[in-house]
Amino acid sequence: MKKDNTIYAISPIDGRYKEIVKDLGPIFSEYGLMKYRFIIEIKYFLAFSKIGVMPRKITKKEVQYLESLIKKFSITDFTQIKEIEKTTNHDVKAVEYFIKEKMKNFSLSDCMEYVHLGRTSEDINNLAYALMLRDGVKIINIKYKEVEKEISKLAKENKKTSMLALTHGQPASPTTFGWEMNVFGERLRYGIKALDSFKLKVKLNGATGGDNALHSAYLKINWRKFSSDFIFSLNEKGGIQFTNNPFTTQIESHDTYRELFDIIRGLDIVLIDFSRDIWMYISRGIIAQIPKVGEIGSSAMPQKINPINFENAEGNLDLANSLCEFFGRKLTISRMQRDLSDSTVERNFGLVFAHTKIALVYVLKGLGRIKVDQNAVKTELEKHWEVVSEAYQVILRSVGVKDGYELLKEFTRGKMVDKDAMYSFIDEVAKKHNLPKKTVEKLKKITPHNYIGNRNF
Fold first, then answer.
1. pTM for the full model?
2. Domain boundary residue, one of 319, 345, 378
3. E strands of 245-395, at which residues?
């Protein structure tokens, strides 16, 4: 019998939801971090080899060999690095030593001392995390766009579906279901646009920000330009872009970490709001949930279909956002030129992406199992003719009835008014104030079903 490694998982991310987030594992795991460090170290060595300070030029065959190491990086490589780390007790140095061993076994033993030359661990780490975040953002951004597409589809399908609005939880001027969904669609599009155009600041400038060692050893090299060029070379078309921050301590100040997690938090807040609204629409009965054969909603109440997909999403979004806020608050502060309390925190970046992706998957599941109950929407509107009092009081005042607002307030405030009562009220006001026939007709044409204003989008 195959051993189930999820049985004793402490976090549901590695247990219950493992299948949903399995594509994030190779990115945010210890393996992922080591892989990205390895990539940066190799790319840095190759960039270093082009500036004329090494004892000889690197051959085309040697370049191809080093590039192949990146493409073939494996669990075996990772395991060997971790074995070296047992002795060094330093993860970045373990990567350096591993690369040197690879070079020694090829034809690069005379150049291997240029691996990691003049760099501090944070130069490698902040660039490794940049690659990690870029790949993680790609995954959740695809899901954000899928959710936006489904919400926008729901909006278009219900563009003309009039619906009772609730402000302060009380019946208010009607809206359309499509309009309400489009509001969420627009909010998501705004956040997605910010994510698509986001730029992350990173650094490559030595132990305390001035490239002291390299400036001392190679006075003629413009190391700031070298760093900027190297960082630019890491960019790919699409996804977040990297820019050089030359003005740092040992660590990059991480203000753009805060900005990135604020964008994610903002998108997640929109979806929390969305999930709660859908939950309440289901509770009101104007959204019907589609039953699934074999499912059970309650162990005691057979009739129930609970909105668990949206509840699950809300909980995971809340978890993700608490971490987003913490990362922004924690990582932008460092004692003097640096302290190491950020290191263990950064290793938890994957939690934000995992909880967010789980939530997005469940929002999509939920959207696939709901539909607007057109009869329920109409029935609810028909019970609340008092909501057109806003239009009536404006029309009455527009034709010279000075106490139009007060008349409607006295008649409707705190009451449920039906069609017959509202028409009787109009007839009484028309008689008392001698309203023109066309004004009475205008008033009676307005119903809770057509009093929706301009809802085009």
1. 0.94
2. 378
3. 287-289, 370-372
